[in-house]
Amino acid sequence: MVATGAPEDAYTAEPFVPGRGGLAALRRAAAGCRGCPLHRDATQTVFGDGDTGARVMLVGEQPGDQEDRQGKPFVGPAGKLLDRALAEAGIDPGEAYVTNAVKHFKFTQAEPRKRRIHKAPTLREMTACGPWLAAELAVVEPELIVVLGATAGKALLGSSFRVTQVRGTVLEEEIHGRPERLVPTVHPSAVLRSDDREAAYQGLVSDLKVAARALSS
């Protein structure tokens, strides 16, 4: 950590992550995270949500506008589509833990009161938020991680990750010091933006079926 300046100048959440305690302790601590400058404009920290004993962890990019306002991940249109796709693939959304690689909403806004436009986080911002994701993985200990989109993939697997090359496959990698099984797929927001939304949705369901089979094997 840098000796001078604001904590966010160090670009690491490490000093804010408690050394002990479960998800409730992590969530409380994350609410005060100043590990990077994104906290300045966001309404609040949006921490992960779900059961400590969840078998599957879904990792997205960052909170969106609705998530930022409500303080919960995947409560907007993309989250509703994801729940439908999970159920169709045979995974109970209520038994999953959902979170994001970055816990604050990053956006651009032409003027106050205008719509806030999502802006992709940088690798530096993703790395700064990494200790929170590592702590969530250590507590939940999922059997499988579903990687939702390119940004989440880069946060977990490095900058060379390409979702189109590995989507719908089971990967075995070491993540934050733990051996993990991962199934990458597209982010549900990409389905909503697609010109052929039905085909994109079926592709997402197909990838999630691979995850469901991996959980049952």
Q: What does this protein look like?
A:
The longest helix is centred in the last third of the chain and has 20 residues, at 197-216. The strands form two sheets. The chain has a five-stranded mixed beta sheet with strand order 2-1-5-7-6. It is 38% helix and 15% strand. It has 217 residues and is of the alpha/beta class. It contains eight helices and seven strands. It has helices at 23-30, 65-70, 77-89, 123-140, 150-157, 163-166, 188-193, 197-216; strands at residues 56-60, 96-100, 107-108, 117-118, 144-148, 171-175, 178-185. Helix 3 packs across helix 8 (197-216). The mean pLDDT is 94.
Overall, the morphology is globular
Count of β-strands: 7
Quaternary structure: single chain
Helix content: 25-40%
Largest sheet descriptor:
5 strands, mixed
Major sheet: arrangement of strands: 2-1-5-7-6
Please identify the structural class as seen in this structure. Answer: alpha/beta
Could you tell me how far the N terminus lies from the C terminus, measured between alpha carbons in angstroms? 43 Å
Tell me the number of helical segments per DSSP (H or I, 4 or more residues long): 8
Question: What is the C-alpha radius of gyration, as a whole number of Å?
Answer: 17 Å
- Point out poorly predicted stretches: none
Approximately how much beta-strand content do the residues carry?
5-15%
Order of helices and strands: HEHHEEEHEHHEEHH
The average pLDDT value, as a whole number, equals: 94
